[in-house]
Amino acid sequence: MLFRNATLADGRRRDVRVSGETVAAVGEDLGVREDERTVDATGKRLLPGMIDAHVHFREPGDSHKEDWTTGSASAAAGGVTTVVDQPNTSPPTVDGAAFDEKAALAADSLVDFGLNGGVTADWDPDSLLDRDIFALGEVFLADSTGNMGIEEPLFLDALAEADARDVTVTVHAEDAGLFNVSAQERDDADAWSAYRTARAEAAAVGRACEVAAERDTTIHVAHTSTPRGIDIAADAGMTCEVTPHHMYLSRNDLRELGTHGRMNPPLRREKRRQRVYDRVVDGTVDMVATDHAPHTADEKDAEIWDAPSGVPGVETALPLLLADARTGDLTYERVRDLTAANPADVFDLPNKGRVAEGMDADLVLVDPGKTHPIRADRLHTKCDWTPFEGREAVFPELTLVRGSVVYERDAGDRPGGESETFGDAVGRNVRTAAGGRDERGSEGGRLSRGDETESIADLAAEVVEEPPDEER
């Protein structure tokens, strides 16, 4: 395939040739070959496919919520070409047998994938870490879906096991000891946010970073929802991700979302949401990952203390970010870094994340001049709702995974329209495909940070003393 006159993230207009699974050439006026399809990309953006480092595709155990076919189709339609599935399935991915079961199911994926290993009191690190896992985690420092929360001694064991094998550890950081138990007397939709406090996240991020720093290792902090948590991770030299729902939604939206807006960590006050967004823009945040956690609308339509936590997002993340790039709130280069280049660097995927010669041809073609409203009935997840209903977004027209077209629609058709077509299940385990982790090891792909200016212990102590309504 040859893309003619495509605009790349940095604004350059180039022809991009795909040969087999890779980008064969990026240049000006590349000659057309008889055996290749030509795509006129004039006025359109050609971007690297998104690497979503945090999804829950629910197989095995809850395939009525999502499965690898529907989840990966949703990913492909949203411009996501690699997903990383988390371990809190049923059974949890905590030993070699459970990993093998999930890997067999993932063979139905349209997009490339990584499979994370989990940590519980019953985990078997020897058999689990003998497999081609993507990372260890998310390691739950407080209970969430799947009841996989662990105490600090087991977290220390997990860090040691992972460090010995150059495996990244991803942490879900909330301190249950700082939850506001008085909120349990309430039954409104905002009670969940009042219960799982911002201080609980920031303190847990601080402690997790402190423990990792004491052992001269690094961690990746999942779905940070507070500006304080982001700053602590950055100051400690750790990496972190932010979800689209924590970028675009706040406790103000719970009036409309109701229990559909319950997730872990929960939505925050509007001022905190804006400051989280600011850190996405200014480079403090390393990546955007969706924490795509589908539940059916019937399951979510329950009392606040009974509704499951989680929202869908794998199909709408990149389109929402591209809508912001269209208006200038983000640059296209920042969108590329947040969704592709940085995840590839942090998680040691040297062949992914950029449109350059020799890279995997994971490509997304979009027309930034055309937006479409997000509609749940046009999305492809089994989950039959979205928290972003009605928001304008820029959806892909074409998605390639290692040179194979996995999603396509006519330029004049809407997302979810009659012209849509999906390709074959070409996805494969990125660790197996790459022969395991990159030889650089867990530090090789890390983003560089400035010198630490405060001790992690001091930062953690500061958080605990912080007043509950402090908007830092």
From TrEMBL:
Belongs to the metallo-dependent hydrolases superfamily. DHOase family. Class I DHOase subfamily. GO terms for biological process: 'de novo' UMP biosynthetic process; purine nucleobase catabolic process. Pathway: Pyrimidine metabolism; UMP biosynthesis via de novo pathway; (S)-dihydroorotate from bicarbonate: step 3/3. The lineage of its organism: Archaea, Methanobacteriati, Methanobacteriota, Stenosarchaea group, Halobacteria. The active site is at D291. This is Dihydroorotase. Residues 436-452 have a biased composition (Basic and acidic residues). Its EC number is 3.5.2.3. Zn(2+) 2 binds at E138, H172, H223. The gene is pyrC. It comes from the Archaea.
